[in-house]
Amino acid sequence: MYYHFAAANLPSLLDQIRQRYSITTDIHDIRRRKYSNNVHGFRDSDSTAAADIACFGCSVTYGIGVEHDLRWSNLLDHSARNYGVNGLSCGEITHVAASVLQHHPAQTAVVLFPDLSRQFLTVVNDQGQLEQFNAFANYDQTVPKSQYPQRYSACSTLYRLPTALFQQWFALNLQSLVDVTQLLNRRLILASWCLDTDLMLRSLPLAHYPHVSLVPFLAPDTQGTDRRHPGPLYHQRLSQLIGQLIPH
């Protein structure tokens, strides 16, 4: 969906993230691994020291499937903070990035986007309570219809919408992030592990936005410990590509 970036209350935003995306026993390979979050719900230290770079994204940036120190954000030759959150959509990532950057002194923001189809939805359950969740295009495999009928119905409706609408939502969110970083005088580096999203990034008129750079597309592998997410080699290669765009 499209997010309007009003002046966000950062503590409130981080509280929402922590509540919605705290690591629990149903996360992929959690039976074999333990992921530790800081007080804000991010997989980073609690330090408030300034960093050169702020990194944003979904579970790939968070580092599901790899050790903390082997994530692309940790392999950059600069101090960095990792604001990756499992399951975030493109719209939510741009919202988090725009909100954090209003409080974070980092001069460079690096954003790694997922696929365009991922969306954040709200439904009313059988108890009349609101439930928030992230919808994925393979919902018929990930959302049991008998257990979550409202979620299944919402996903079914969402994914009957034309692809052009998802592209339009992303374009609006992306433009907002480009404008916010330009206003804040920050460098913005954009990438995606999904080819369709990467093609949308290539449509940006970079001549009008000298503060924006695009990372060459790098197809992800599934060599992480959960066999769903990228492994160490992908993170290493991605960090090298990003590093080439950061002035020393």
Descriptive account of the structure:
This protein is of the alpha/beta class. It has one domain: 3-Layer(aba) Sandwich (Rossmann fold), CATH 3.40.50.1110. Helices cover 33% and strands 15% of the residues. It is built from eight helices and seven strands. The chain has a five-stranded parallel β-sheet with strand order 2-1-3-6-7. The chain has a two-stranded antiparallel sheet with strand order 4-5. Mean pLDDT is 86; it is low at 1-8 and 21-32.
Highest-level CATH class: Alpha Beta
The oligomeric state of the chains shown is single chain
Spans of at least 5 consecutive residues with low confidence: 1-8, 21-32
Terminal CA distance reads 36 Å
Structural class: alpha/beta
Do you know the CATH topology?
Answer: Rossmann fold
Order of helices and strands: HEHEHEEEHHHEHEH
What's the arrangement of strands in the largest beta sheet? 2-1-3-6-7
Overall geometric form: globular
Percent in helix: 25-40%
Count of all domains: 1
Q: Which architecture would the CATH scheme give at its second level?
A: 3-Layer(aba) Sandwich
What's this, in brief?
33% of the residues lie in helices and 15% in strands. By secondary structure, it is an alpha/beta fold. The N and C termini lie far apart (36 Å).
Show the helix and strand layout:
Layout: H1 10-21, E1 53-57, H2 59-62, E2 80-84, H3 90-101, E3 108-113, E4 119-124, E5 130-135, H4 139-142, H5 149-158, H6 163-183, E6 187-192, H7 195-201, E7 212-214, H8 232-243
Helix pairs in contact: 3-6
